[in-house]
Design a protein that fits this description.
alpha/beta; Rossmann fold; 2 domains; 5-stranded parallel beta sheet; 5 strands; elongated
Length: about 260
């Protein structure tokens, strides 16, 4: 499953679709005959459309809301007191090569995954934190994400006896399966599951399939209640399309594999 997900990454990259269509268009335009040039121009137009439509944010935002809206509510401060711990999924830390040779931690734009749990632990001294995340890159040889998370949490003053780490998982299913085996973890107790809102549907389905007793605590929302129709950005739009496609295809793959 892990290797297949890496090989199918092209399907979640609309910019790569546009590049592939441009390559096909060049081949067709280089062929002799009016028919080849005609199809080349059509393919070129399609490539331009695929490229430009990615920047119109209301479209991917509408799809992202279907993933995020069911998890807009989070447990109240009083409700959190009844939980045993917080499970934090990896994905908020920059790759290990970004950390090398630097004296500061490196978070990405999903940093809320790391920060919000600290507030919950400070408000509830009985809570434990389980961070689960190994290294998702095929060729990475640096510190695992769990090791980097431990450095971050210790630098922010989290006592070591309140932190549990799992450092071998490479995807969401392994987060759930391997996290349940960490010494000191009882998945039958009540846990808050912290991850990005757009990732929560697949995460909840996977953790519940493995047997965890989890409640969603979504963070890192990518959308609000609406998006102005004039909102346009190729940078933000293409990133949102990657999130949408990655999650929907991932959820489909997990269900076909019986992992969600």
């Amino acid at each position: 499953m892990f290797l297949a997900s890496k090989l199918l990454v092209f399907l979640t990259q609309p910019l790569a679709w546009a590049a592939g269509l441009l390559l096909v268009a060049l081949v067709l335009l280089g062929r002799a005959g009016a028919g080849g040039r005609r199809w080349g121009l059509r393919t070129l137009g399609l490539a331009l459309f695929v490229l430009l439509i990615q920047g119109w944010e209301p479209l991917p935002d509408a799809l992202l809301r279907q993933l995020e809206d069911p998890y807009s509510h989070t447990p109240s401060a009083q409700e959190v007191q009844s939980y045993h711990g917080v499970v934090v999924l990896g994905g908020a830390l920059e790759p290990s090569h970004v950390w090398e040779g630097r004296s500061q931690v490196a978070l990405n734009d999903s940093a809320e995954r790391m920060i919000v749990p600290l507030r919950l632990l400070r408000q509830n001294p009985a809570l434990q934190l389980l961070f689960t995340g190994g290294e998702g890159d095929l060729l990475s040889r640096g510190l695992s994400e769990a090791a980097r998370a431990q450095l971050l949490y210790e630098s922010l003053g989290l006592p070591r006896d309140r932190l549990l780490v799992e450092d071998r998982s490479r995807n969401t299913y392994e987060n759930a399966a391997l996290g349940a085996r960490v010494p000191g973890v009882d998945p039958s107790k009540r846990w808050l599951l912290v991850t990005s809102a757009w990732h929560m549907r697949r995460s909840m389905a996977t953790f519940e399939k493995v047997g965890w007793n989890v409640t969603p605590y979504a963070v890192d929302f990518s959308t609000g209640s609406h998006t102005p129709w004039s909102t346009y950005s190729l940078v933000r739009g293409s990133r949102k399309w990657v999130l949408v496609l990655h999650e929907w295809l991932g959820l489909l793959a997990y269900r076909l594999a019986g992992q969600a």
